[in-house]
Amino acid sequence: MEQQLDGQKPVQKASPEMIHSLFLINHSGDIFLEKHWKSVISRSVCDYFFEAKEKAEDPENVPPVLQTPHHYLISIYRGKLFFLSVVQTEVPPLFVIEFLHRVADTFQEYFGECSESVIKDNVVIVYELLEEMLDNGFPLATESNVLKEMIRPPTILRSVVNTLTGGSNVGDTLPTGQLSIIPWRRAGVKYTNNEAYFDVIEEIDAIVDKSGTTVFAEIQGVIEACVRLSGMPDLTLSFMNPRLLDDMSFHPCVRFKRWEAERVLSFIPPDGNFRLMSYHVSSQNLVAIPVYVKQNISFLETGSCGRLEITIGPKQTMGKMVEALMATIHMPKSVLSVSLTASQGSYTYDITTKILIWDIGRLNPQKLPNLRGSLSMQTGVPKPEENPSINIDLKIQQLAISGLKVSRLDMYGEKYKPFKGVKYLTKAGKFQVRT
Amino acid sequence: MSTAALYNDQGAAEAAVEAGQETTPTSSSSGAAFGLFSTDFKKNEDLKEMLESNKESLKLEAMKRIVQLISKGKNASELFPAIVKNVASKNIELKKLVYVYLVRYAEEQQDLALLSISTFQRALKDPNQFIRASALRVLSSIRVPIIVPIMMLAIKEAAADLSPYVRKTSAHAIQKLHSLDPDQKEQLIEVIEKLLKDKSTLVAGSVVMAFEEVCPDRIDLIHKNYRKLCNLLVDVEEWGQVVIINMLTRYARTQFTTPWKEDAVFDENNEKTFYDSDSEDKKDQTEAKPYIMDPDHRLLLRNTKPLLQSRNTAVVMAVSQLYWHLAPKHEIGIVTKSLVRLLRSHREVQFIVLQNIATMSIQRKGMFEPYLKSFYVRSTDATHIKTLKLEILTNLATEANISTILREFQTYVKSQDKAFAAATIQAIGRCATNISEVTDTCLNGLVLLLSNRDETVVAESVVVIKKLLQTQPTQHSDIIKHMAKLFDNITVPMARASILWLIGEYCERVPKIAPDLLRKMAKTFTAEEDIVKLQTVNLAAKLYLTNSKQTKLLTQYILNLGKYDQNYDIRDRTRFIRQLIVPNEKSGALSKYARRILLAAKPAPVLESAFKDRDRFQLGTLSHSLNIKASGYQELSDWPAVAPDPTVRNVEVIDPVKEWAPSLGKAKQPKSDDKFYSDEEEKGEEGSDSSSSEDSSSSTEESGSESEKESNEESEKTSTDSGKSSSDSERSSSESEAEQKKKNTKKKNKPAAADSDSVESEAKDSSSSTESSSESNSESDSDSDSPAPQKISVKAKPKVELKAKKEVSLLDLDDFSPAPTNAPKPSVISSSLLSDLKGLSLSNVSPTLQITTSSFGPEKTHELLHHMTGKGLSAKYHFPRQPCLYQPQMVAVQLILTNTLDHSLEEIHVGDRSPASLSIHCFNTIERLEPGASVTVSMGIDFSDSTQAANFHLCTKEDQFSVSIQPAVGELLMPSTMTEPDFCKEQKKLQGMNETSATIIMATA
């Protein structure tokens, strides 16, 4: 039947809508959900995608944009799932990609994770969501606040109640947000405890070369907000040192002109969790590198073994504790197994993926963590040309490494006194040490 | 189906139990006896019964299971009759699920689908806008040709609906109807035309989308709405923004002339001017070929710029491509930062953005050079990301940064990802040919790689070296020999072929090695790949011509082998070569020239980017991404040589009073938001002049922000009671003492606010209605004809604002007419403000320019000298805004000098000034200033129409203090009254590099 329909296709004029169909495909290549916004496109169109997936080996390497005789396939890979959309005509690819990520974000927000099992369990809600998010292939409601008014996210309690009473997930009040001048907030929000929390989270992206010099470093920061305030609060967040910020992007609620003129963030916040802004600090000398890595990885020319020794020590930590320290190494294919001793923490080596993970934990400046031992190599294979690079993960609480500080938060428009809080956190982003 | 019913002996109760576990058809308990088909039938029979029951919960359960079937791509079409009955259900969720089903299957069951139509028709008249909208949504999604007239009617009605949400839905429905029945095009265009006029931000994106689908060629529909769309853009939802920006890009390319100077078009050499100061650019433009950007063109660029800060990557990309295709060359640079920012986003976003940067970086190295390091490759990047980054790094290579790049490449060559290592070698080759300084270094590096253990690396090196050697073969016979030695160890065909070609080409440089190699090849010829065989034949031919003594037999042997090869290309080639080099009676004239044919000097290959030809596609499009023309791609037209009539975009002025009435009545909170965004909207409707005088320059932004802040303070102050003044002072820590003082006095003057609501609206009103506006052009001084009077200005008057605010707050909200007019309240508003507003009003009289003098100056003073730095002498200044008495070019400044010491100060006067040419009319020396006393003196300063600070020394008998006065743009302007048409006329005469603007919203028209 579907095949037939697809057969009729060429007769029809190419449908003009942006996103025609969506297929969700799991890691092993099974299509477990399909949704069409117009006529049905046979799932056989995905064969072209599977072909490309086969060729790419690693799912990360599948090209996001593919061409087939009658369609174009634009896909994203999130949480071991492929979101594959089918389009028929010219469309900005980023438009589709951005939308697919929004869909994945929405699933994440509704179900806590974005995985095959969760989507299968909530297929009806997923379908209802997709129906609201896209009309005729064009995005309709993508703001999670608006969606949540129309389709309530599942909770354990509600699903129990629903089963007993036959209640539903669909909100019985009609959404107001979509109509107002502030589509991201609904009217009539009420809380007994009014609170506004802001997390300033910075990630250090860096490439450090063999000798320990920083090849490239920049800071990527975001301000995640959790705002639970009644009514229509109008907030102003100001920084001690806004000049630090090189480049930023804002949630649509932020008044851009106010930022341009005064460097303050003025906004009527969405209700709940949202990302207020993300920013970028790139000036190299400003970027402090919190740890140094001393490493010696060598593969012997003769015999089938290699040596590895890694020591990590504090560099510029601004007097704070470095926590959740972790080193990840993608070993060359010829490394069969490792036998190492860690002075602190524990290590694992995955033989199939060739990934060595050393979970260190807290960095003790008095007793530096050290990992040493030997690597056993496959015989008869030339020694690897390049040493593997080390990816570092770490966390520093109560510190924004760029030095960015929130100076104050003011609220207008409402009379109550909200509870306010700001938290800082520094993490390693793509922090890579070349060896 | 009736047989299936017989089988269904399990009853509904069990079916309901089963419903919980039902997911896959194979999990059915129906047993093998029923065979394959009955499973589905039986199941669906259950569902049918559930749907026909009286219980909502059972129906809902059934629908949920059906949706699950649909989601898995299973066929549930035979349930249509049972489901369609539920379309009128009261249960919202049930109804929604029925809609899902209906939209999916209506096409297959057209007759039955018609049963549901009347329900939708009824819902289209529902008083609730959401019900109307969703009815239209589903109705238009049902692809049943019979109902086309009904859909048409519904769309037309919805397009005139009062609710913008319903109108938005109708815009979506237009596309659906168009794809269902293209014959309706003409009627649909009418609806589109109507909806394009809609002023709601909600509708704008959707209707432009419909326009793009239905009638993208009807550019004439856009003219009248162009300015409105530009002005609404910031407030449109993000997806609509993308569509509108893309459409406007296309539009602008047909309506405006090129902002790219003739000589600058896509020329790398002109990189310099791109970076050069504005002054040079200005000179270029005025002298060589005066180009004046259409104000509408400028409007588009200005209004899209803030969107670069959008969180939506598609919006950022859309703005970037708009700038790339529309902005003057020196302005494109502003998109760089935002594009680089996107590289932090998801892998797929990176991929698309990098593709676009790759294309851009070929033409404009300068844009991305400062961000070179952002393109460094990480070992964790996906392969296609790595390759793109490499491409960009190569594009960005210059003499200055090549050493950095090569060092980086060195790391990549060692990568475990061999495909990437090979790509790096190619990249090195490209750098080597493009930058002659490093050719040798690269070549040596590549030769070292020849001893690499990895075969792909070696092979790639050989191929690249071959290309490099072609550019300068004379010095490199060593390398050629080295490669000949390597030949035995290399198995990759392309590399072997390359070496053979090299030896053949330069056989005279390696006379001993070449014949030996040919000998080896003769032995292995039959086992080689085709490409190697072809090159062997070539080598043989060349050697035969140069060294026939040693190689004659070998050549003949190889040609014989080739003659009987399986591949016809090789047989052809062999035959051709034999005829060419071995003279016989048949070969004719050509063989005389064999040597010249085979051993001609060959031009070196040009190594260029794979993205070289991608610029034929509009950036950010699918076609660009695939490098192939996607269906439905619309070519971006070339700039017209002569701009079409710009007046087509003029809109008759809409009476702003209408727009104002509702905004006053709105609820309190949205209003403050309103104030921020939607003044643009209103302004857009006011007509051409105000929309083109959008703010962009920093100086007015400052002044804008000031008033904004002030109004905020105002509202805060008044909405809270006087006891809260402590928080006030806390907030304005940055404010000067003077201002604090002023504020206090202001507060005293103000009667207690009657009602916070009225005050709020007052604050809002005043801030928007008397927002300062000034329009100036620093270039006017280059306009030699008439320097001073040519300057047009609509003076900004912070003072006026304050006054207006203060006064209006006296009014009760009830007295405040819905159409607020300043005119009937002459006693309240100063006459000068009135005249200013009149000057701005739309009357067609007063054609001439007349200078207005203001009867008052702003109270706002600026600190010139603090009493701590001034050793007791404190000085403040302000601009009285009156024509300077001393010289017409001068700006009048009043100084207030105060002595804060306990002894008197003597001989206060103005000392040295800088720049020395600065002309100042000084005040007379003050012989003596008593302790605690202050004196006001006036002086005149000629700022030469620039905002450059005037620096001078303020001297006392003992000391001298260096001070400076920096005027805001508005202070330099002369107030004048003119009509709007005059203003537009004058404005068009300006040719601006600098532009200052602000927004005035007039309450009266």
TrEMBL record, chain A:
Coarse class of the primary localization is membrane
Q: Where in the cell is it found?
A: Cytoplasmic vesicle membrane; Golgi apparatus
What's the domain of life for this entry?
A: Eukaryota
Q: How does it sit in the membrane?
A: Peripheral membrane protein
The UniProt keyword set, sorted, is: Cytoplasmic vesicle, Golgi apparatus, Membrane, Protein transport, Transport
InterPro entries listed in its UniProt record: Adaptor_comp_med_subunit, AP2_Mu_C_sf, AP_mu_sigma_su, Clathrin_mu, Clathrin_mu_CS, Longin-like_dom_sf, MHD
The entry's cellular-component GO terms read: clathrin adaptor complex; cytoplasmic vesicle membrane; Golgi apparatus
Asked if the keyword ATP-binding belongs to this entry, the reply reads no
Q: Which Gene3D superfamilies match?
A: 3.30.450.60, Mu homology domain, subdomain B
Q: Which GO terms describe its biological process?
A: intracellular protein transport; vesicle-mediated transport
The MHD domain extends over: 193-434
Record's PANTHER family? Answer: AP COMPLEX SUBUNIT MU
The family note in this entry says: Belongs to the adaptor complexes medium subunit family.
**The name this protein goes by in its record:** AP-3 complex subunit mu-1 isoform X1
From TrEMBL, chain B:
Indicate where this protein resides in the cell: Cytoplasmic vesicle, Clathrin-coated vesicle membrane; Golgi apparatus
Q: GO terms for CC?
A: AP-3 adaptor complex; clathrin-coated vesicle membrane; Golgi apparatus
Q: How is this protein situated with respect to the membrane?
A: Peripheral membrane protein
A Pfam family per the record: AP3B1_C
Biased composition annotated in UniProt, kind: Acidic residues: 679-688
Q: Gene3D superfamilies, from UniProt?
A: Leucine-rich Repeat Variant
Signal peptide residues are none
Gene Ontology process terms (BP): intracellular protein transport; vesicle-mediated transport
List the residue ranges of the region (Disordered): 663-798
Q: Where is the composition biased (Basic and acidic residues)?
A: 706-719, 727-742
As for what it does, the entry says: Subunit of non-clathrin- and clathrin-associated adaptor protein complex 3 (AP-3) that plays a role in protein sorting in the late-Golgi/trans-Golgi network (TGN) and/or endosomes. The AP complexes mediate both the recruitment of clathrin to membranes and the recognition of sorting signals within the cytosolic tails of transmembrane cargo molecules. AP-3 appears to be involved in the sorting of a subset of transmembrane proteins targeted to lysosomes and lysosome-related organelles.
The protein here is known as AP-3 complex subunit beta
Organism, scientific name: Austrofundulus limnaeus (Annual killifish)
